């Protein structure tokens, strides 16, 4: 099962998509080049490609209106000459993905952006060789395996005002840097910006399942977060609302003030998660402005097979609860919210489990169970185990 990805601009004639044997469409909707929406859906009996596209684009007039209003109200997105950016790509033994990622960044990189590749203990020289033939791309080798080791290495070696972290399995949109510049112009006091994450492809059942259940999406409405959020009693403990770690940018000095990333999180296979949740939470707890800007878009290559997607759900539960345990201990004033968050999480997962067990859920039963198992493991000692591992092997 696969869906054909289509990229259309509503300010221009809409081309007729070809399904090429696909079971449905995933449609990136733009207006004047800026991503405004994403639609996906299956081909129903009797559907034509034109009919399916028409059905998916219902409500596009509202998209156009919202885009026009925002364009008129937003200030001009001109980057102050003194503001510079480092794009940090942390990678380990994935040269093909890195090459694709670098090609996309290089195609749209403005003069105020430098690019750094952090080779996180790769076993071969392929990563170094890819960077060696590219001008203007810096190479750093970080021998300690673990994503947050690599992120912190990029952070301390950068000299720019801001640093953006993108994963090697993403492709930046052509408007990525304009989106970040727009966030800076509209929110000059921001200390962190996250952006929209859309699927790069929907070629497999696993990718379709993942995106159908929300993927990494946080919506198409810009948001400005502060120290409180009306109507959300768990704020900011449920820090997944702020964005995803594959597309995040920070004021570099502010991030250094926070102490960078927690190197006991995102350590690789034993604990492959939690680092982004933790740094998002600490940023908001520092009373700094956090902005979500949906025009800062990357396209992510979702897990292609069901086995690795199931493991990803396990890692989400594990990383989330490791972050919760750490933060609960460190913030006495937030402990009631964290207790409520844990209760909410388990109720939510058990409802999903019940639905999946009778065939009414959108996630397979094994995926929900894996996330619960990961959460229990994370709740009962994983953060402490990770700290011991880091102390023994990571230094």
CATH architecture of the largest domain: Alpha-Beta Complex
Number of helices: 12
- Topology as a string of helices (H) and strands (E): EEEHHEHEHEHEEHEHEEHHEHHH
CATH class of the largest domain: Alpha Beta
Helicity level, as a percent range?
40-55%
Tell me the domain tally: 3
Classification by helices and strands: alpha/beta
Q: What oligomeric assembly is this protein in?
A: single chain
CATH fold-type name of the largest domain: Spore Coat Polysaccharide Biosynthesis Protein SpsA, Chain A
The rounded distance between the terminal residues' Cα atoms is 45 Å
Radius of gyration: 21 Å
Give a count of the beta strands, DSSP E runs of length 2 or more: 12
Quick one: CATH superfamily of the largest domain?
Answer: Spore Coat Polysaccharide Biosynthesis Protein SpsA, Chain A
> What is the typical, i.e. mean, pLDDT?
94
Largest sheet: 9 strands, mixed
Backbone shape: globular
């Amino acid at each position: 099962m696969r869906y054909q990805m289509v990229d259309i601009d509503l300010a221009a004639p809409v081309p007729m998509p070809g399904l090429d044997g696909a079971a449905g469409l995933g449609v990136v909707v733009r207006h004047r080049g800026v991503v405004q929406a994403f639609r996906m859906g299956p081909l129903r009996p009797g559907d034509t490609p034109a009919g399916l596209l028409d059905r998916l684009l219902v409500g596009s007039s509202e998209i156009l209106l919202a885009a026009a209003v925002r364009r008129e109200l937003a200030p001009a997105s001109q980057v102050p000459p003194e503001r510079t950016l480092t794009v940090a790509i942390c990678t380990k033994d994935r040269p093909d993905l890195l090459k694709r990622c670098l090609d996309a960044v290089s195609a749209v990189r403005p003069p105020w952006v430098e690019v750094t590749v952090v080779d996180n203990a790769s076993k071969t020289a392929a990563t170094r060789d890819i960077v060696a033939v590219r001008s203007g791309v810096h190479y750093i080798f970080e021998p300690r395996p673990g994503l947050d080791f690599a992120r912190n290495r990029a952070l301390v070696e950068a000299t720019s005002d801001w640093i953006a972290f993108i994963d090697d399995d993403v492709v930046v949109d052509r408007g990525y840097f304009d989106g970040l510049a727009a966030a800076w112009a509209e929110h000059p006091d921001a200390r962190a910006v996250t952006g929209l994450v859309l699927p790069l492809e929907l070629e497999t059942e696993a990718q379709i399942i993942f995106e159908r259940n929300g993927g990494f999406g946080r919506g198409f409405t810009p948001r400005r977060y502060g120290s409180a959020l009306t109507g959300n009693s768990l704020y900011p403990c449920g820090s997944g609302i702020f964005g995803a770690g594959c597309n995040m940018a920070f004021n570099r000095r502010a991030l250094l003030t926070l102490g960078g990333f927690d190197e006991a999180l995102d350590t690789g296979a034993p604990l492959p998660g939690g680092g982004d949740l933790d740094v998002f939470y600490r940023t908001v707890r520092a009373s700094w402005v956090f902005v979500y800007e949906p025009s800062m878009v990357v396209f992510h290559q979702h897990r292609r097979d069901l086995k690795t997607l199931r493991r990803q759900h396990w890692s989400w539960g594990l990383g989330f609860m490791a972050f919760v345990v750490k933060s609960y201990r460190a913030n006495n004033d937030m402990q009631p919210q964290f207790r409520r968050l844990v209760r909410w999480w388990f109720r939510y997962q058990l409802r999903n489990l019940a639905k999946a067990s009778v065939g009414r859920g959108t996630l397979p039963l094994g995926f929900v169970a894996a996330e619960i198992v990961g959460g229990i493991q994370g709740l009962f000692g994983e953060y402490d185990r990770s700290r011991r591992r880091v102390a023994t092997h990571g230094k």
